[in-house]
Amino acid sequence: MTAAIAPAALLQGRALAVMEVKTTGAHPVRDAIWELAIIQVDADGNVEARLHWLFEPRAALPAPLLSLAGLHPLELRGQPAIESEAQAIASAIRGRTLVGHNLRFSLAFLRRVLPDWKALRPAQLCTLRLARAALPELAGDGFDALCTHFGIARFFRHRAVPDAEAVWALALHLLERVEPSTLGTQLRSTARPPLLAAERFARLPERPGVYYFLGDGGAQLYVGKSRNLRRRVMSHFQNDHRDRRSLQMVQQIRDVQLAVTAGELGALLLESAEIKRLQPLYNRRLRKQRELLTWALAGEPGELHIELLQHQALNPGLRHAGLFRSRHHARQWLLEQARERRLCLRVLGLEEGEGACFAFQLGRCAGACCGEESRQAHDRRLLAGVERLQTQAWPWSGPVALVERDEQHGLTQWHVLDQWRHLGTVDRLDHAQPLLAARRGGFNLDTYHILLGHLRRHPNMEIVPL
Q1: CB 460 within 8 A of CB 391
Q2: What residues does the GIY-YIG domain cover (predicted)?
Q3: What is the pLDDT of residue 6?
Q4: What residues are paired with 406 via a beta bridge?
């Protein structure tokens, strides 16, 4: 393979550590490395040493993985724990450029067991990323497809040593097909996901807004917001080793799209609306809400009646408590009030029966069910709890626009609001009238909390009545 070493000259005299790890699963915290191979290559492209370790993982390997790797459990029994070999592994890497296929996945596991990882900080060259630059039509088809394309023979698959040999052979083929400038970008962009184009990574701005992670075919993976888009997006790529979902998501990112805003409020409102509209795969919070429920209270203390209603069905002026996403959450809140304030579950309509309730016998009810206390006293304690959960009244007589300005970038936005509803955001105030005429969208709990929190933090925010 001496004739093929010429591409190694592009590495500017770098010594390499070609690495392959085998893990018990895809979760960097719960799973572990059970096999590791490192091929040390000198600055001239000559193989210096082939290093190999087997480790006894904390948990047994799944049967399908044992079958795939042609491994018997006894082969790992009695092998050292990977932590005991951390110094030897670090020595094998130190001063070398790491080479691997889908290197982010391997490093998500490896840097958890190397205590001096931050001191090592090796340069990295990922053959998956190289393949995206050299053979974009094949890069997404996987390691096996690339090896087949180049005719790379593998005497055994799914084991660290033969796969490391295949990675090194693949690297040599790919290095023949990339420009020196491309390679320089590959070596510098250690945090970039393997399938994300370098030009997208380089154009991330340091300003407020919303970012969209897209996968194959434009699939919506994740929507997020930040006051500094560049810093926040990069943090995803630098910390993807912390949990399986983050690592899995980053592996799928093919594009990043951005929507800049004039400030934090605009980013919060847009993120909330976009998550509900797009339903991205990896967003857990701020999903599209069901119909909100609230406890409606009719009458006065002594004859107070409480009923769970849809928020939209409330009559104007009717006293109510809370906004809940489900009947379960609403019931749990009322049960907590009963425990804290010694309220009667029968009076509240949460329990059936006559006479003294079971909670009264246990001293948890003050006795409104059996005449030990008056209904007036019982209902006043209930109302005291309700007051803490009242929805704050809309503080203006009609719709308003909250003004947000980004003086540095010359962007001003008007957030058009009415009764805690976000009707839309415009870049010119005269564009607010169509939003007022359409009045699309009902009350949204996430929007309510976003607006209330922002107004509390910024009481002097510029407001324009509409």
Answers
A1: no
A2: 206-284
A3: 45
A4: 411
Element (H, E) at 66: helix 63-69
Task: Report, in angstroms and rounded to the nearest whole number, the Rg of the chain calculated over CA atoms.
Answer: 31
259: phi then psi, degrees, rounded to nearest 5: -135, 110
Q: What is the pLDDT of residue 43?
A: 83
Tell me which CATH code domain 2-190 carries. Answer: 3.30.420.10
Residue type for position 446:
D
Third-level CATH fold of 199-278: GIY-YIG endonuclease (3.40.1440)
Distance separating alpha carbons of residues 240 and 247, to the nearest angstrom: 5
Task: Say what the pLDDT of residue 192 is.
Answer: 66
CB within 8 Å of 71: residues ≥ 6 apart: 61, 65
- Tell me phi and psi for residue 442, to 5 degrees: -100, -170
- What is the pairing mode between strands 97-100 and 124-126? parallel
- What is the pLDDT, as a whole number, of residue 402? 95
* Run of H or E including 187: helix 180-188
Write down the pLDDT at residue 34.
94
Could you state, in order of their start, the residue ranges of all structural domains in the chain? Answer: 2-190, 199-278, 293-387, 400-465
Largest CA distance in the chain: 98
- Who's near 276: CB < 8 A, 6+ residues apart? 286, 287, 288, 289
**Tokens at residue 345, please?**
């579950």
Instruction: Give the β-pairing of 305-310 and 411-418.
Output: unpaired
Which residues, 6 or more positions from 144, have their beta carbon under 8 angstroms from its beta carbon? 157
Residues of the chain with pLDDT under 50: 1-8, 286
Spell out a b/e string for 256-270, using b for 16 or more CB atoms within 10 Å of the CB, else e. bebbbbbbbbbbbbb
Q: Phi/psi at 260 (nearest 5 deg)? A: -80, 150
